Amino acid sequence: MVEYRFQYDARDIHPGRNTIRVQNIGKFSHNLTLFIVPDDAPTIEAQQRANDFGEARETALVFTQTPGNAGVFAVDFRPETRYAFLCRFRDPDGGFHYNKGMLSEFRTP
C-alpha cells in the first residue's frame, strides 16, 4: 500500500486459499477491506462515486497499518468472482482514502 493506491498483480490471485501480505510502504496509515462484488452490481468505482457500497459484501480486513508495518490474512477466493480492495482510513481532513482513489476491483479466473 502506498498513498491512495494498492500495488498488486491480480494475476497472482487465484481461486482457493490465498495468503495476502499487506505492507504499508507509504507515509500515511492505511488499511485494507476485501469485498465480494456481485456480478450484477455496478463497478466498485461507480459505487464509490454514489457513496453507496450496499451491493458489496465485506469479506476480510487488515486493520490500520502505520507506515512501515505489515499485516497478513488468508482468504478462500471463489472462482470467477468479482472482488474489491478498499482503504477505509480517514485522513485528518476527514476524507476517506477510497475517495482519493484507494480502491481496486479484480476478478478471479
In words, what does this structure look like?
There is one protein chain. This protein is mainly beta and 109 residues long. The chain is 6% helix and 39% strand. It has a single domain (10-107), classed as Immunoglobulin-like, CATH 2.60.40. Strands 3-2-5-6 form a four-stranded antiparallel beta sheet, with no helix packed on it. The longest helix has 6 residues, at 44-49. The chain is globular, with a radius of gyration of 13 Å.
* N-to-C CA distance: 24 Å
Helix content: under 10%
CATH architecture: Sandwich
Can you tell me the residue ranges where pLDDT is under 50 for at least 5 consecutive residues?
A: none
Q: What is the highest CATH level, the class?
A: Mainly Beta
H/E element order: EEHEEEE
Shape: globular
Number of domains: 1
Sheet bearing the most strands, described? 4 strands, antiparallel
Q: What's the helix count?
A: 1
- Average pLDDT for all residues: 94
What order do the strands of the largest sheet run in, or round the barrel if closed?
A: 3-2-5-6
Report the C-alpha radius of gyration, rounded. 13 Å
Strand fraction equals: 35-45%
Q: Structural class per helix/strand content? A: mainly beta
